[in-house]
Every structure is written in structure tokens, then in C-alpha cells.
User: Fold these one by one.
Assistant:
Number 1:
Amino acid sequence: MSPIKHRIVVGLSGGVDSAVTAHLLKQAGHEVVGIFMKNWEDDDDSEFCSSNIDFVDAAAVADVIGIEIEHVNFAADYKDRVFAEFLREYQAGRTPNPDVLCNAEIKFKAFLDHAMRLGADKIATGHYARVRELDGAFQLLKGLDPLKDQSYFLHRLNQAQLAKTLFPVGELAKTEVRRIAEAIGLPNAKKKDSTGICFIGERPFREFLNRYLSQQPGPIKDERGRKLGEHVGLSFYTLGQRQGLGIGGVKEKGSPRGGGEHEPWFVARKDLDSNTLVVVQGHDHPLLQSRALLADDLSWTAGVMPADSTELGGYGAKTRYRQSDAACMLTPQPGGIRLDFAQAQWAVTPGQSAVLYDGEVCLGGGVIAEAMA
């Protein structure tokens, strides 16, 4: 954080990470203003997702820290820019990552624009990531706590956004953030971290989607074409899914893989043309492994694509959050990129993000269009 004093607008979510972010900036002598973002209005008073409770927590934090807080409603922007795309992707048989889109379209676009109108020099959030300026350019870096790093969700940020953004807790371990919160008496010091998609909360995901997507039941088959059951609609399943399939075991006598009736089933393919869900037995089944992928809808933090690599291991990539960087080779393709991996990747899922790294630097990435064996 710069010794220069700034007017900084902090996104206060009601959680402990953004609360400590605001505290650290205030302690550093900056003029800090809090903003609470309301991004969802449908059934907001339900047991699953009440922004009112989070706002009460955020306001209590602002009171303890001694800063002003403003309640801003971005629900219309969220529905237009994020949720509509979320539904389109599911209807197309893919599995989108709305948190990535929310960061790019709401937290670092609508929120950033609003903060600038309030006369802010910079914005800050409680994400576990870092920004570094190097030779006049801005780099997005992993958070120092490897268990909490959130650069994957921020990979679509551009130079203009990174130049205006601070991530103070990205320099800290989560345990230290909790310690600071308790030491200064924050009311949410022990508040449980939010999980899942913010507007869905803890409600059953299929039940939520059912309100917005039409059901088209069809067959569940194994890789040999044997029918094992019925699915409720391809949109309600994702590759690698194990729970909620509603099928029992099928013994494969003499199977070279040793597949047996007690091995769990996993979703391996979604055939939209025949409305068929293809499942396989065993976590390590070949149909769940991919050595390469194609990605499009690219976004690079530097504004340009990184140099293509001529060897496996030139870069690291994540095809899902919380996985280790996988050594890969980048090759430009018409309208996208191809990533080839040194080791097969599990359940590479169209619609999810493939995010590229050079060590601790997050370079950007794209949306997975196709997984290849």
C-alpha cells in the first residue's frame, strides 16, 4: 500500500475479509468509505439469501471502524450482465462460473464506476490476491495464502481496473485476518465464510435452477450405451458430478479397469443432440481425463495474449478453482487458445474458466469450449 493518502471506496460485504480490508486502509491513514452492494432481489427475504442480514453486519463493521457506509443496489445490472448469461450457458449445456463474471461486470465495473463518481482514487475488496506495478504495467498476483488465493476469479480484470484496485488481505494469511478482526473487536470476527454463489446461498441448487430452466428429462446411459436411469434435464448436471444421479451400481464382470457395483458413478458427457447423460464408474475413468482443451472468450490482464510456449510446462493453468497449477503449453488458435497438459486433467468442463499463470502472476484466461482426450 502506497504512503500516499487516497480516498478509497471499500466493498463491504458483511464478511470478515472486507471488514479487515477497510480497517487496514483506515489505519494506513487513507480516507475510507464503505459501500454495500445488493446484487440480488428475487426472494431476498428467504432463509437462504438475505442481504439484509449482511448489510446489518457491514453497517456494524463500519461503525466500529469509524467510516461511512452506503447501500447501493446493483440488482438490475446483475440480472442483465451476469444472471442472463448464467442461464444462457446452462441452457446450452455448459456449466458457467458466475463469480468470474460478477467480478468483471459488477464488482470491478459497476461498483468501480460508482466509486469513481464518489470521487474515489481507488477501490478495495476483501479478495485474496495482489496487484503489482512493474514498469508502468499492472500485474495480478496470487494471494500469499495458497489456501485462499482468489486470483482465479479475478483473471478477467484489465489494466484500467487493476490500476484502481487494492487487495490488502492478499498479503495476509486467513488466520491473520481472523486474528486482526478479533483484536479490534469486529462484530463479525467469527462469521462463517460464505460458500457457493452469492445469490443462491445455501439453497439446493437444482431447486433454484428449476425456477428458471425448463426440464427436459432423458436417459442416463453408460459409455456402452446401456440405459441406467432417467435424468431430469441436462442443464441440472455438471461434468464430474457424483451426487444426485439416482442410479445404482452395474457390475462389469471381467472389466480390465476392475469396475464393480460399489464404484461410484460420475457424469462424463452431456449429449445435447440425443438429450443423453453419459456416466462412468470410477473417479479415474478415461472419459473423465483430458490432455488438452480449447478455450475462447479470452481476457488477458496485460491486454495482449502471452507468448505461446514451445514446451509443456511453459505455463501453469487451473481448469477449476482450488486445484494446483497444471503444467501446460499454450498454442494460439483462431478465436481462442489450445492448452496441452503434461498430465491429464480431471473433468475439464465447458463453460468453466481456464486460467493461465506464470509462477505467481495470473496472466488471464478464457472460457473452456472443448475438452480433448
Note: The helical segments are 16-27, 51-65, 75-91, 98-117, 159-163, 174-183, 205-209.
Number 2:
Amino acid sequence: MSMVSTLGKIAVGIMVAKGVGGLMSKSSGGSNNTGGGLGDLIGGLMGGKSATNSTGNTQSGSITDILGGLLGGGAAAGGLGGLLNSLSGNSNQSSEKTAQTDTANDPLGNLLSKAFGADESTPEPSEEEKAKIILKAMISAAKADGKLDDHEREQITKFVGDVTQEELAFIKSELDAPMDLDGLIQSVPENMAQEVYMMSLLAIDLDHQAEAEYLDKLAKGLNINPETANAIHEKLNAPKLYNS
């Protein structure tokens, strides 16, 4: 196994455990018609199986397709990575690069395609390191409401499956560790700031003041301005963090 594939499994577990509202509401009757709720689809999505939604339509066999549809693209690469490429001139990319949608120029999209099984090629060492950072960020964000009870921990690890002892130890260490947002912020490379913020938001159902304060501190620590943060929230169907 790899840390990249482990990222995909833990990401699913976190979104189910925390009942991430934006994704759940979109998947239960939004414009993408993805069916009766992300949680109901997980069992069929893991391992490349098909699932049937509440309208009787067969879902694609890859969780990438479901997440991609929920996040506004035809695949996870288009939905998440494409968002980063299109954000209002704050992404440190030229307008020419911003206009590109080719996944070859989309590091986050490539990483997520491997994490969620759409791309079975071997992850690069740099992708393994990036997956570790995003895993740390998502697990930290899952603690933002002040609790990570036994049921949530069980849900988060439910889909882990076949991982190495090293990967399992890493997951357990991150789940057991007290939240250290300052330490996380210091560990994030500048070119991963928006990726980390976006994936952290996917781990949060923004319905507690503590979660809003966590995201505000994360955004400020990663030098993400309010306009960019709000754009990410809007794309992921989450409440905006800042008033206009």
C-alpha cells in the first residue's frame, strides 16, 4: 500500500464520521443527482464496485467519480484541482496556467486520482509526502469541534483495510495526538497552502463556532486571504467564513 491510497480511505472515513454537511446535502438531491447520501454509497464505492442511488440509477464504480461530481467536476481531478487553478488570481499561477485544465498540470488532481483509485500508477515520493501532510491536516480538522469520540474514530478507520504497520502507526499517532494547529501550519509548504485548506474544509461540518475559529486561524496561518477562503467554501457548498 501507500500513504496516497491511505489518504483516500481516511478522507472517506472522516467525511462519513463528521457527517460533512455540504457534501451530504449535495449527494442527497442536488443538481448532480448523485443519490441518497455519500455515506450510503461508501460501501459500493470502495474497491471499484458499483452502487445504486435512491432513484435507481447505477453509480460509477469509483469514488473519484462521486467526489468529482459533488465538487463540481467530472472527476476529482477536475473538481478539486480545477478549483485551485481557477481561484481569482490568488493561486500564484499565471492567467495562462490558470486557464489550463489538463490534469498533467494539476498536482492535487493527480494525487486525488491516485488516492481514490482512478489512477493506479505508483505514487511519486513527493506525492507520498504530500499525502502525509494532507492526512495530518484532515485529521486535525476533524478535531476542530473539540471532540473525536470512539464512534468517530471507528468510522474514520473503518475503510483503512490493508495498510502497512508504518501507515497504521502514523494514522493512530495522528488520531491520538492533541490538536496542534500551529505545528501543522508550520509544516505546510507555501505551494500547498490552498490544497491543505481545501482538504481541511472537507473534514469539517461547519456548524460550531470552534470550527469557524479553527478555519480562520488556518487561513491566516497559511496566508490565504478572505476572498480566496470564501471562494473555496462556496465551491464546496460550505457556509462562507467571512462577510463580504
Note: The beta strands are 51-52, 58-59.
